[in-house]
Amino acid sequence: MANIVAIVGRPNVGKSTLFNRLTESRKAIVDDFSGVTRDRHYEAAEWIGKKFTVIDTGGFVHGSDDVFEEAIRDQVHIAIEEASVILFMVDVTTGITDLDDEIADILRRSSKPVYVVANKVDHAKLHHDSAEFYAFGLGEVYNISSATGSGTGELLDAVVSHFPDQEEEEENTLPKITIVGRPNVGKSSLTNALLGINRNIVTDIAGTTRDSIRIHYNQFGYEFLLVDTAGLRRKSKVNEDIEFYSVMRTIKALEDSDVVVLMLDANDGIEAQDINIFHLAEKNKKGVVLVVNKWDTVEKDHKTAKEFETRIKEKIAPFTDVPIIFTSVTEKQRIFKVVETAMEVYQNKIKKVPTSKLNDVMLEIIENYPPPSTKGKYIKIKYATQLAGRSPMFAFFCNLPQYIKDPYKRFVENKLRENFDFKGVPIQIFFRQK
Ligand code: GDP
Ligand code: GDP
Q1: Which part of the chain is the EngA-type G domain (predicted)?
Q2: pTM for this model (two decimals)
């Protein structure tokens, strides 16, 4: 099950400020380079060891003032349907507005957990003022200041109480693969081509408790579960066109999968939204395969694919050890290559390197290129082991782990990738005291 926390509320109450605080992303840095951050309205977060995805619904409202309120109401309905927990944010400095009341009316009818969050309670004096929000009839009011962070810990304690301590173990151990991407890139076409049926798959209608639909694929020696996303549901009645909705579906499918096939349109290249999904997959430690579709429509020579690859890798750095496949679904070019590659990535994800082999290879490399000494102290790495987990994690035991800097970590990661093949898979490396 995906844990999704949606922040709803009218404009200017402080939704995006809270979002930034909860996700504490490397956002500022990313922003400077590519300007993609403005599009990043959903992001992985963690509190007392529980992982979840936060969505700032404000980021999905576009358009003129008269469509504004309508859009916000739509979002609240979608949040009720799709999110696990809803934070209804209001502003203590303005009190209750008509739109606040309307949103509260909708939320009162929902069975999902809703928390009233009174924001901008920057000092104790304002605590009393927030009492008026009890009038919503939505239970306890949480006073917070998104600007300073005060009160957010208590709120998060309450929020994560809805999430299980540990992912329930799946009985089914087949690889779970999902195809994601913006509208019209070719997701349904690929799915239909793989399943060999030339029609849209009928799926169940939104509102069921299941997070996503899984299609059992078992042909040509490949067996896996294809996890359904928004693209496959176009024929259902729900609001597929609403970007906010399709993002919710994508996040759920992604969290429910082992390998994410991120599909791009060769005519558009990789865009901010794609990069957001890529980073979400990376943060959630999912395997990734990039597919550049509609390759038939691109004028090309022998260098074109290489140039495409270089441009994509610049945008997704530093995690660039990712397979990129150029397909034409309509011409049936390389579509089985996608399946084959996704399965390879899955194998890489669950791979366990034997400790003796890991040490033979890595300790020799490290001996030849030891971490630079810091403050006159030499760092000695003595031993390495792969930790148990659902994606590759390695511990390197050494005398002074605090002196090992990011560049050396990256060096070690690159060597692991060169020697053991973790293509398409995020890996984590820890240096620990021995
Ligand atoms: P959104 O439209 O709901 O996403 O609101 P923003 O996060 O953009 O915030 C709107 C304005 O309120 C900005 O000027 C923020 O700096 C300000 N703001 C947000 N949180 C707080 C807070 O806790 N205290 C105060 N004083 N201002 C805040
Ligand atoms: P989705 O919204 O991502 O599921 O995209 P669809 O599968 O519905 O495809 C959108 C449109 O792109 C349809 O008209 C497809 O026929 C077309 N399309 C899909 N794949 C290709 C391809 O490889 N080449 C070309 N030229 N068109 C494609």
Answers
A1: 3-167, 175-350
A2: 0.75
